[in-house]
Amino acid sequence: MTGDMLTIFSEFLGTMILILLGDGVVAAVSLKKSKAEGAGWVAITMGWGAGVAMAVYIAGFMGPAHLNPAVTLGMAMIGNLEWAMVIPFILAQTAGAIVGAVLVWLTYLAHFRETTDQGAILGTFATAPEIYDTVSNVMSEVIGTFVLVFGIMAFGQNSFTDGLNPLVVGVLILSIGLSLGGSTGYAINPARDLGPRIAHAFLPLKNKGGSNWGYSWIPVAAPMLGAVLAALLYMVIV
What is the DSSP letter of 85? Predict the structure, then answer.
């Protein structure tokens, strides 16, 4: 592979692993007759934090391992990524998220068949707020993504032991989930929400309801806005 192709592939592969492990823990907690059924929010946030760290480790030797269109946009704004790579990165991330969601479905195929709660099934793929309020939901995703993107940019100004940075990013994800994720489920990543939602729409799930497309624009648009605000503040400070 050429350098650019390898870098784009790394975004696909890393995001696939991120969704496989992240949505995987949601499936483990939410679906019927899983050994982790009912393990709760702490298990989900820990699984997502660890999943992000592992995905960055897996993809990081091939590219920057953004694995998130909001991070990609923010990095382009501060000059850490060529603008020509933004769209290819976002497409690769979204495609990887779709494939990752399909792999979760295959992993828990029997458990999806046993689960009749349509909300739990959709929640395995995509986020939804506990209280539907557009302003509140947008603000939650903007604030969470701002913390994520500004945090990643700030980490770049610090010196870490070789190989530690992905683990620190995972802890950041864990912190956001525990502290800020209770409102909307903290998508904070457009590909993380849109890709699996697309998979939910086309997969032959036994008890599938709707894919909640009416809400779907918020976990796409709000994280991008949060990333823009993070990048603007970073450029003022640095």
Answer: G
Helix axis angle, 218-237 to 190-202, nearest 10°: 170
Q: What whole-number distance in Å separates Cα of residue 203 and Cα of residue 138?
A: 28
* Tokens matching residue 146: 């701002």
pTM given for the model = 0.96
Can you tell me the distance from the alpha carbon of 55 to that of 14, in angstroms, rounded to the nearest whole number?
A: 5
DSSP secondary structure letter of residue 106: H
Question: What is Dmax (Cα atoms) for the chain?
Answer: 53
CA distance 67 to 58: 11
| Contact assessment for residue 89 and residue 191, using Cβ atoms and an 8 Å cutoff | no
Amino acid at 183: S
Q: Which two tokens stand for residue 228?
A: 């823009």
Collapsing DSSP to helix, strand or coil, 165 comes out as helix
- What's the number of CA atoms in the CB half-sphere (13 Å) around residue 31? 26
Closest listed residue to residue 222, CA positions, set 190, 179, 192: 190
Per-residue confidence (pLDDT) for residue 159, from 0 to 100: 64
Query: Is 77 in a helix, a strand, or coil?
Result: helix
How many Å apart are CA 184 and CA 105, to the nearest integer? 22
Q: How far apart are the first and last CA of the chain?
A: 35
Query: pLDDT band for position 192 (50/70/90)?
Result: very high
Residue 83 has what DSSP assignment? G
Question: What is the spatial distance between Cα 73 and Cα 149, in angstroms, rounded to a whole number?
Answer: 10
Note whether 191 and 96 are within 8 A (CB): yes
